[in-house]
Amino acid sequence: MMNIENQPDSLLPIALFAGLSLAHRTRLCTLLHRKTFPAKAVVILEDHPGEVAYIIQSGTVKISVLGDEIDTILALLGPGEIVGEMSLIDCMSRSATAETQEECKLLWIDRSAFHDCLETIPLMAMNLVGILSRRVRLANARIQSMATLDIDGRVARQLLAFAHEYGVPSNEGVIIPLRLTQSDLAGLVGSSRESVNHAISSWKQKKQISVDGRYYITIHDSAALAKRCG
Known about the structure:
- The protein is an alpha+beta fold.
- It has helices at residues 22-29, 85-90, 111-120, 122-148, 151-166, 182-189, 193-205, 222-228; strands at residues 2-3, 33-37, 42-44, 52-58, 61-65, 72-77, 82-83, 97-100, 104-110, 168-170, 173-176, 209-211, 217-219.
- It has a 5-stranded antiparallel beta sheet with strand order 1-2-9-4-7. Strands 3-8-5-6 form a 4-stranded antiparallel beta sheet. The chain has a 4-stranded antiparallel beta sheet with strand order 10-11-13-12.
């Protein structure tokens, strides 16, 4: 674990710190710490007290609610996202579990420093409001797709949403730099792994997408997927 003092430019790609002055980013670097977590590490545990928030610098983090027989996946988050902020805001216990899907570099900030920054850096507070608003919109769209689309349409819509949020353009299409297993995609769209496998295999055969050894998906034909989800 280390702090990131003297690395203000490293905060530029993070939505929470978008538009902040060099002075504010330099101050934040004295409050933020970096820690590397291995794959399958539980970073936040549901119902436990929350004293810090995490910001993903690299890797994929799964957010889920634990059940007696099956876990409900709420989100898969990638670089630039903040995790665990709700407990710092409302002082309640953690509402979900956060687990790394691959090795992840995370920044963390404690409750006192987080509150102080929100009070003294208005733009950071507005950025947080924007992040939370975007998540509500995404949740609404996901609920709508669950009610109106078939399995293939839900998977297509989820991949396009990931491409919009995290996509990296390449010569072959748009790479989604998240570890997306078929089981996790099934959990996100409310389906079985077999049904998701059928959709993914079909699109791979048609060369509309490809999947590498890290489970990173490249979308080669966004229009085809968009047509599939209406």
